[in-house]
Automatic annotation (TrEMBL):
The keyword Lyase applies. One of its GO terms (biological process) is uroporphyrinogen III biosynthetic process. The lineage of its organism: unclassified sequences, metagenomes, ecological metagenomes. Belongs to the uroporphyrinogen-III synthase family. It is an enzyme of class 4 (lyase). This is uroporphyrinogen-III synthase.
Length: 219
């Protein structure tokens, strides 16, 4: 059985894949995603970086304001790049396999940026790693278009975790460090003794950064 921790509005594709593979799952959302009103900077940019699929979805209404000059479009991974392409946006660079800021920074198109104006489209309060690396040689700003709010314990969470704990070979999927931490928090609130059980399950993560943080808390 698989514990799916993505927001309910964005877990559909993964649900479909599991169903096609005849794999059982339960829903245990760590966050909910909400749009926030953004103010698009008036100046033009040389590069715009989209940090996630959510960044694409919630910034689409601003595309006409953003794409006014010849510029480069980067994406943090293939899924984000595909979402941009589906919306008619040409993507100039993105990591082909691992979706992470570190992988993007390692690409020549990104590592060779110098004296450029860079706009990072992202959610409110995300990691500063990408900006901190780029701003050494460039001017970097944010356009924050959505926010993630940690879920409170709900009936769905209680029913899902109780069912999940009945399967000793369960798999937990964590899409971010913040998501993983909130899953642990929610599980502890439901049943404190479930925490150790959760950490004994197989954990699937999307980046080395998440792996390191997961190991630091006992996975």
């Amino acid at each position: 059985m698989v514990l799916l921790t993505r927001p309910l509005a964005q877990v559909g594709n993964l649900q479909s894949l599991l169903e096609v593979s005849d794999l059982d799952y339960v829903l245990f959302p760590a966050f909910e995603i909400n749009k926030i009103d953004a103010v698009v900077p008036k100046e033009s940019y040389d590069v715009i970086i989209f940090i996630s699929v959510n960044a694409v979805i919630y910034s689409e209404e601003y595309f006409s304001q953003l794409f006014v000059e010849p510029l480069k479009i980067f994406a943090v991974g293939p899924t984000t790049a595909k979402k941009l392409t589906d919306k008619g946006v040409k993507v100039d660079a993105y990591p082909l396999e691992n979706a992470s800021s570190q992988e993007l920074l390692a690409m020549p198109e990104c590592s060779e940026l110098s004296n450029k104006k860079v706009l990072i489209v992202r959610g409110k309060g995300g990691s500063e790693a990408l900006k901190n690396s780029l701003k050494v040689m460039n001017q970097v700003e944010y356009l924050e278009v959505y926010k993630r709010s940690a879920c409170e314990v709900s009936r769905l969470h209680v029913e899902s975790i109780e069912r999940f704990m009945q399967t000793p070979d369960g798999i937990v999927i964590a899409n971010s460090v913040e998501s993983l931490f909130n899953v642990v928090k929610l599980v502890k609130e439901i049943r404190s003794y479930h925490e150790d059980q959760l950490k004994s399950r197989t954990l699937v993560v999307l980046s080395e950064r998440i792996k390191v943080q997961a190991q630091s808390i006992g996975f």
